[in-house]
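User: Predict the complex.
Assistant: Input components as received:
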Amino acid sequence: MADKVLMKGNEAIAEAAITAGCRFYFGYPITPQTEIAAYMAKRMPKIGGTFLQAESEIAAINMVYGVASAGKRVMTSSSSPGISLKGEGISYMAGSDLPGLIVNVQRGGPGLGGIQPSQSDYFQATRGGGHGDYHLIVLAPASVQEMADLTIKGFELADKYRMMTMILADGTMGQMMEPVSLDFDIKPEPEKPWATTGTQMKRPHNIINSLSLVPEELEQQNFRRYEKYAEIEKNEVMYEEYMMDDAQIAIAAFGIAARVSKNAVNEARSKGIKAGMIRPITLWPFPKEPFMKAAEHVKQFISVELSMGQMIEDVQLAEQCRRPVTLCKRAGGMIPSPEMVLAAIEEAAENGGAL
Amino acid sequence: MEYKRLTLLCGHYGSGKTNIAVNMALDLKNQYENTVIADLDIVNPYFRTKDSKDMLEEAGIRLVVSQYAGTNLDIPAMPQEMYSLTDDQRVKAILDIGGDDRGALALGRLAPAIRKENDYEMLMVINCYRPLTRDAASTIEVMREIEYAGGIPFTGLINNSNLGDETTAQVVLDSMDYARETAAQSGLPICCTTVEKSLYNELSGKIDRLFPLTLQPKIR
């Protein structure tokens, strides 16, 4: 029998989390990510894990804080409005240097918005939805397989750097079904000597807290945290380049937008237009280098997004405004069609003489 | 296929019920004029028979579906014409029920009338490539949950084992032991094995009661 299974993106995240050793899931249902909770509800009791439907998203993220403090792998998931509710807890976890995984299967907003896919929480995810100076590691899957792979990677990064990782997916990624290989290479979990696991009278108390009333000390904490972030920016950037070697028009797109754009790039190539694509997989840290490098030969960048234009700012910062960056967008739950992206590529080619 | 007056399709979510329902309705329409397809999914707002509304209407098949299906209004609504399925015995209908036991709860109001009339098939759509129904035992566990919630015992199985775009003839052939084992353990017949139509010729003669499917459009 084939060693792959057919999974929804949401299920792939849940199964991968279990494989990664996550035995604690706290959440509150919201479309389009409810299958994560449903899957956990079925699986966790059978493997000695804990599934708990909290009374609210705020409760759920604080339960995550508790388990993370005790040093166990833990996750929560939601969709856009629910992630906003978790914002306070996320900031507290950042201030307490706690690892954990947050999944955001985005839907159209702002407010309650709709239930169709969106990427309009990019700013919230990469700039911090909560208060204070902090980052999350933000991973953007573009297939069901990557939903699983990046979930495992997410737990590893969270433990390695003692901070939260966010999977920033969208409604399409959550709902679509694709074959997935669940044959993962799981690294052993690192020791967590800082966790509140009981002193056994053998060591001083570990204290997990984000309150720091001495400004000099709080400043030093922030400095140390940003030294860690600099290390992550150096070591953990992930991206995919597609037909970029000789590209004159370069698409920047992640998640579902990258899948649509790949079709458009292929179509443009068949028409003789030298198009390519850079697909950031880590949205924070953002892959600056490939954009800098591409600016040498690219005439124009096109940021394709399911938002009013958010990642476009990072693209401009990354290539330091050396080439124009235009926006190809749909919003509110709409998805750009390959034809729409192709038209944007053709327009760029005509304007920039890239033909 | 031969059809009873009502054909109910249940199963684990993502098992392929909606695609099969649409194809069976078209097949039934070729045999019987007054054909209805009913979308009674109260769980999933996406991937509904309503996605094929135009095609079904063109084929002359009446679609009974909540006006909110496939819209942004994510509520477990039932269509108001649902009672016509049991009241009007001139129609033959394919009923697409929501996934798992939660989806089967929608059958509660109809179950007594369906059992009383006793002219139905209650079919469990199975796929051994779905992670929670990989073997006979776990499949039957889901089956029992659905029966309990829906109040109607199953009468047969539909083997829809597939790996999406990566489905080959061998993938389907490899699932037959699972399907037969599930049939043996549950005491139910395999009513048909469904395959995407491009695989039909290759598998014809190798698998009994093969049923070809034309898949609903989806986003790439």
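The two ends of chain B are 31 Å apart (CA to CA).
Let me know if you want any component modeled separately.
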